[in-house]
Amino acid sequence: MSEGAYAISEWHDTDEIYARLNELVKQPPRPIRRDKMAEFLRYFEERCQRSKALTDEAKRYIPGGVQHNLAFNYPFPLAIERAEGAYMWDVDGNRYIDFLQAGGPTVLGSNYAPVREQVLQVLEQCGPVTGLFHEYELKLAQLVNRYMPSVEMFRMLGSGTEAVMAAIRVARIFTGKKKIIKAGGAYHGWSDSMVYGLHIPGSRRYEAAGIPRSASAHTQEFYPNDLGHLRRLLLLNRLRGGTAAVILEPVGPESGTRPVPRDFNQRVRELCDEFGALLIFDEVVTGFRLGMGGAQGYFGVRPDLTVFGKCIAGGYPMAGGLGGRREIMMHLAAGIGSGHKRAYVGGTLSANPLSCVAGYYALLEMERTNAPVLAGRAGDRLCKGLQEIIERHHLPFVAYNQGSIVHLETAGLMLLDFRHPLKLARELKPRQHLMEEMGAAYMSQGIITLAGSRLYTSMADTDEVIDDALDRFETVLSSVE
Ligand SMILES: Cc1ncc(COP(=O)(O)O)c(C=O)c1O
């Protein structure tokens, strides 16, 4: 596929981004001026009372008051009532420009009517689930195969987390090896073996409370972009039973928060081939957001297995799937007595008609409307505008994007690492708080972000929406100390 079919108009200068990010992390955190921050926080007290009452009450019944670990809690979570296109409305009637986009799946914009109508039709016919095969399972699998030829076979699952679990299990069966290597800091869901090296490279089991050591005994992390480190792990593993798979987010850990050089995935492909390990692309975020061919199409690298989530159900629930080479995927054969040595995976609601019809029509609509590319153009415009504001105010912050995945680093939290433990211990909390404050300040100006540092754009983000958003960002960024 040509570059024109993808959301990324030009791959960034990765070295330059790291130079700027390193500069940001070297400096002390730069918060918003105290008087301005107090003003931003007053918004929540004055305009979000119903959200506050609801989420306060929710704390009595729901641990932490919210169900999602991405829900933004500072100063308190907002309760959302309505979402449409580029906007969300809270229960107090306030409107926000929505750069969370549900965490990534809605490249068409929220609650896209042509998909909703197809979903409603299926719901009227058979409800959300029957437990038996539905034609949309086939249609979706065929469509994914058409967009991504590496996906010779496809298994629908309930979430990205489940799909990663299935990928690891099937990789171990196929290769007869145990070790799984991931990039430090990458998030691949919350399964026992993957809560390892989360968010911060070198953090290994830092977040693994409640998980026995044995569960992640065969998980390893390499320092992001350090191919030498990856090679050393592969070499060592060769002496200890071998590597089943290397799992990567192809734009870099945390949706490209630690971006990769353009040829990185190809280099990893070569290493996997040299050491007989499978290459798993976690395309939970990039799958269809970067283009219908996914990151694998953009980079021209063929993984053995691909993990799907988010877009695979078009923003509807039960979004997970695994695809790849036929001879590997056959170890996921379903049905009683398949006769294979098989990975035991499944779920009552796996491949329900609702998720499959939603995914099928969402993908078709994304192709028809060129949504990934339009969302990417919106990301470019947003990123350029943010860079311009940052420069004009002489701020150390860094904005960069991979198409419709836009990063706005003000706290540099994700850039801390365990190679500098003293700095990490000293700065983790203040930088976390700075990120919370930035997120709250944006929200007070009518902008929802992912944790104050990432922005997903969608096809619904017209130039007017982006320019309006930039005016609002200006208000916040011009208030920094
Ligand atoms: C790259 C990546 N992999 C896996 C997952 C887990 O997917 P899910 O939340 O559907 O379990 C996520 C979720 O954000 C993700 O971003």
Structure description:
The chain is of the alpha/beta class and 481 residues long. Helices cover 41% and strands 13% of the residues. It has a seven-stranded mixed beta sheet, with helices on both faces. It has a four-stranded mixed beta sheet with strand order 1-2-3-13. A three-stranded antiparallel beta sheet has the order 11-12-14, with helices on both faces. Strand 8, helix 10 and strand 9 form a beta-alpha-beta unit. The mean pLDDT is 95. Bound molecules: pyridoxal-5'-phosphate.
- The secondary structure category is alpha/beta
Distance between the termini: 46 Å
Q: How many beta strands in the DSSP annotation? A: 14
Number of alpha- plus pi-helical segments: 15
Order of helices and strands: HHHEEEHHEHEEHEHHEHEEHHHEEHEEH
- Global mean pLDDT: 95
What percentage of residues falls in helices of 4 or more residues?
A: 40-55%
Radius of gyration: 22 Å
| Unreliable runs | none
Outline: globular
Strand order of the largest sheet: 4-10-9-8-7-5-6
Q: Which molecules are bound besides the chains? A: pyridoxal-5'-phosphate
Percentage of residues in strands: 5-15%
Largest sheet: 7 strands, mixed
